[in-house]
Amino acid sequence: MASNVNPTVRRRRLGMELRKLREDKGMTAEQVAERLLVSQSKISRLENGRRSISQRDVRDLCDVYEVEDRRLIDSLMQMAKDSRQQGWWHAFGDIPYSVYIGLETDAASLRTYEPLVIPGLLQTTEYAQSLVRGAWPETAPADVDKRVQVRMHRQKRLSETENNNPDLGPLRLWAVIDEAALRRRVGDAQLMIRQLEYLIEQSEQPHVTVQVMPFELGARPGVNGQYAILEFPDASDSTVVYIEGVTSDLYLEKANDVQKYSVMYEHLRAQALNVDQTREFISGIINQYADKG
């Protein structure tokens, strides 16, 4: 396995290049599908990076688009080869949100809103264990451990550079957390105290910003649910809005969609407590947990 390759990002970049070739040729995805005797959905999934791309796929598409530049074809073929290699998360087996992990691993910044639980990147191990057991009660203990291990591994992006990209420093994280996530008791009171203390500790890192959205602010943008906005250091990689689902996740990349969520997030940040107020607010909840025992 090549250690300098992120297969998820490679698929996205390759998909964008193939889409550009199709558009330059003036063809629709349906027309390409007809020429190759495949479904239109396959072409769409290849272009949006949601499907693994083989070198044969690249060869066939280049034939349809009448690409004659040998260096371009070789470059696309190499990207296809890299995109089929495995990222670190594949060592843990089948991970339902592996596409997201691949994006997060190579992201330069992440803005997230969490209305119900502490963000995964800011969870303690024991909080994560208790949360996974409660959220998926039928999950086998081994699978619970696997999910928690993956979550803890993801947190390395907050403290170190991404080994696959030495130019990529620690992830810049901005988290707006609803008061409900702080008061929802996951495990016992002592576990919550340790979790909230850890949240304050992490918020003191220069590249981590945490803001709380108190109940008293009432309705506000984003109240409908969790979402995250991932941005990348390479200008060719479009910003992605990620919305987690129970059985499937949603990834939005159209400029108009990203703009709407970005504006909504700016409203959230403006309305939430500032950094100092947030730490004071969390400390107050810690004291309440301590009083309750």
TrEMBL record:
- What is the protein name stated in its UniProt record? Transcriptional regulator
Q: Which organism is it from?
A: Streptomyces nojiriensis
Q: Please name the Gene3D superfamilies in this protein's record.
A: lambda repressor-like DNA-binding domains (1.10.260.40)
Ranges for domain HTH cro/C1-type come to: 18-72
Q: Which domain of life is it from?
A: Bacteria
Question: Record's Pfam families?
Answer: DUF5753, HTH_31
Q: What InterPro entries does the record tag this protein with? A: Cro/C1-type_HTH (IPR001387), DUF5753 (IPR043917), Lambda_DNA-bd_dom_sf (IPR010982)
Q: Which SMART domains match?
A: HTH_XRE (SM00530)
